[in-house]
Amino acid sequence: MENVGNNDNYDRAELEKSKPHITVEIIEYVSNAVVVKTIIKKSTGNISVMSFDSGEGLNEKTSPFDTFIQIIEGRAEIVIDSICNQLETGHAIIVPAHVPNYIKPNERFKMISTVIKSGYE
Questions:
Q1: Ranges of each domain in the chain
Q2: What is the CATH number assigned to the segment(s) 9-116?
Q3: Side-chain half-sphere of 112: how many Cα atoms within 13 Å?
C-alpha cells in the first residue's frame, strides 16, 4: 500500500471560488499513485478529493479528528478498527477520531475526505 506523502501527487492550490465544479472531474487517476487535490484548507479543517489507482491505498493511521469519507467514483474498502466497510459511488462513512483505519487497495476509485478540526474543545 502506498502512503500519501511519499511519491504521491499533491496539488496544494485550492479550487477557484464562486465557480461550479464537477467533483469527479476535479482529479484524474495517475498510474501507480494516490493523488490528492485540496478543495478547501483552513485551520478549522480541510476538504480534499483523492484518486487511487488500482492496488494503491493508505497505510493504517489514526487522526485526532473525525473524517467524513464519500466515494464519488468506483468502490473502496475502508477498514476502521479492524472492521471492513465496502463502499461504492454515493456511499459515505465517518471515520472516528483516535481509531486506527486504512484504505485497502482493490480497484481504482475517487473519494472526498472532509476533516473538521473545530468543536473538539
A1: 9-116
A2: 2.60.120.10
A3: 17
